[in-house]
Each structure stands twice: as C-alpha cells, then as structure tokens.
UniProtKB/TrEMBL annotation:
Protein name per Swiss-Prot or TrEMBL: MFS transporter asaE
Source organism per UniProt: Vanrija pseudolonga
Higher taxonomy: Eukaryota, Fungi, Dikarya, Basidiomycota, Agaricomycotina
Family annotation (Pfam families): MFS_1
Family affiliation: Belongs to the major facilitator superfamily. Monocarboxylate porter (TC 2.A.1.13) family.
Subcellular location: Membrane
Amino acid sequence: MTTRTETKADEIELGVYGEPQAGPSVPTTPGNGSTTTLDAATATGREVASLPPVNGGRAAWSFLIAATVIETVIFGIPFSIGVLHNYWATHMFPGDEATLTLAATLQTGLIYMTIAILGPILTAFPHLGRASQILGLIVSTLGFIASAFVTSAPQLIGTMGVMFPFASALYLPCATLLFEWFHKRRGMAGGILYSGTGLGGTIMPFIMDALLTRFGYKATMISVGVAYFVLNAIGLLFVRRRIPLPSRRGAVRPARQRIDWQVARSWAFWSGFLVLFLSSLGNFNPTLWMPTFADTVGATKPGGVALVSIMNAASVPGLLITGWLSDRFPAKVIVFFNCLIGALAALLPWGLGTSSAPLIVFSIVWGLTALSFSSLWTPLITRICQDDPALPGVIFAVFAFLRGIGNFTSGPVSTQLLKSGGFKGAVGAYGSTNFGPVLVYTAVTVFAAAIAGAFFPA
C-alpha cells in the first residue's frame, strides 16, 4: 500500500473522514506526512493511493477543460434567452409578454438559487455529487427539448423556467472541485473556468438566432438540446474528484462531512458577503437595459444587442486577466480596482453616452471589469474557508444566493427607477433620457462593493 500525501490539501481531505482535527486548517508545510492523518484514513478502511499532481498534469487540465466546456454550454443558454424571448413574443405567443418575461427571468434566477440550496447538501453528503450531476443533466435536457413542443406560453415557465435550471446540479461540482485540483494557480484556473460564461454569452445568441432563422423553432430547440446533452455528457466523464471519497462498502460507514459554521462569525465572511451582495445589485443592469438604452439614444452602429455581445466578448479576456492577477496580488486590491473602474465606467462613458462611440468604450470596460468579477469568487472563497475542505461548497452557495438576489431584483428595481424619470437639465444621458436613476444606482452599488472590498482581510 502506498501511503503518500503530496500537499496540505490532501491531509485536510483525509482528516475530514477520520478523527476530528484540532481546527479548520492544518500547518501549511507542503508534504507534511502526518501519521495521525494516515492512521485516521486507515481507520476508515481507506487505502491512500498516490494522487494526481496538483496545479497541473493531464488529469488537472482535463478536469479544467471539461468543466469550462460545461460552464460554456450551460450559461450560454441564459445569455441567448433574449433571442428566444423575442421569437416567442413575435412568432408564437404575441400578447403574453408578462408570462414570457417570467419564463425568461426564472431561468437564470433559479440556476443561482438552486446552487444555493444544493451547496450545503452536497457538502454534507459528497457521495451524492455524481448522481446529482447526472440528474441535473437529464432534467435540464428534457426541459430544453420539451420547450420545442409547447402550445401555450405558461408551458415555457415549466420547461425553460423550472426544468432547465436543474442544470445547476450538473454545474456546481465543476466549480467546487476546482479547489482540489488547483492551489497555487487557483485564481488562474478560476478565470479559465468562468471565462466559459463570457464565451457562451458571446457565441450562443448568434447560433440560436441563425438556427431559428434558417430551421425554425422546433428543429432549433431539439437540435440544440441534443448538442447540449452530448457536450455535457462528454465533459462529465472528465469531471471527477482528485481526492477520492472513502468507499461506502467498507466496514466503517463514512460519517457525514461536518461543516464548521464558526466561519459565519469571521470578518472575512461578512466583508465577502457585502462585496457579493452590493456588486450583484447593479451588475445585471447594463446587459438588461443596453438594447433599450441604445434605441432610446439612437445608437445603431453598433446597436444594443451588439453592444451586449461586446460586453460578453470583453469579459473572456477580463476573466482570464482577473484570475491571473488574483494569484499575484491580495484579493482586496483586485476587488477594489475592479469595482471602482466598473463604477466609473457606468458614470462616465455610459452616463454621458448618447452615441455609439462612448457606449462601445463602456461595453469594453464593463466587460473587462464588472462582468469579470466572478473570477474573484475563487480567491475570496479561498480566504474565507482558510483551507477547510468542507466550506468551499457552502460559501459558493452563499455567493450564488446573493447573485440570485441581484438577478431577481435588477428588473423590478430598475423598472421603478425608470418610472421616476431623468435628471432634467443634466448632461448626457442623465438629462436626455429617463435612465439617469438607473445609471446612478448601478454606479453607487458597484462603488459600494469597492469600498467593502477594501476592508476584506488580506
């Protein structure tokens, strides 16, 4: 039997299923062969085999590529919901705008909210991880394909609005297992993973629009649904744990993984909580309202839809750069400048933008900063968890819940702000449109996140 531990993360993982450890973290000396840890592992009837290398190697990169493909495919669908919403409203169910909007809004919001529910469950019962992924793949695929056969707008709520968000069960382990495979390069790896969202958001709307135009609705939904299933199923083959769980067939049944809720009393947790909450409140407004705003000010070259695509495209290098920087500088520094630049972009090029040129500048800067903020989830979670392997899934779930709040509230809040009118006599879009309050709200919430980030512990 080979008894080798390679990193402190290996020791931590072994300790979870053995005797209780002295605290949520262990000494940081790499390669510290802890006799206590090995004895604890042996006590469970578990054989400690040589583990794949961390921070690189074929297995690590296979996991990261597969997880990025899954992220691209899953989150590319919500980004193309605008194309589908327009098709539903103009070709299938005109006059059912409220129902169609609900179906479209539920999709993204429920993805975040179901992650918030699943995070603690899969943390406490990690053996359910693979089964939940398979279930999520099957239900979300059925929901997507079933939407090809709807005969009324309310049926879209059940298929695209409720069934498709089960994709969160497929996605969640991709994000949390990243903490096993990458340590020193964790920020960079997170940037690569989350760049799948930007890539999917850039290409999927054009793919959906082209397919709808050429082949019609039913053929498009069935073919995309089949492709969705195949790509995710292939990716799922390579998404696996680096540190295997104890066998459930042994003489000693592994205990439920314990969660140290003392983390909720730490300043790192609450400052991270504030950063995510405040940044999420304003983060969705530009992609939600840019098409309408561009029409209002007469910006047509490029138009609003193209400007949103520019944001998503800019977020791909933005996510990679942000992740790379987070491996080299404290998270608080990157959070502060990311949110500060995003807030200034909302106030200046968007707020003063009454033509295409400043709106292009805004779209690029916003994509590079605010839309790239998800790359900072990884270093924030790493600092909050303090090497406790039971916590990343829980903290990721909390972050997803806060993101879901931002998604659900952005529409109603910004709609009420639009009704309040603009700032008469003000320069740029502040005075010439009724978007002034939305611009200020977006900038203030993101700037408040920058201030909260400045107090995040190093």
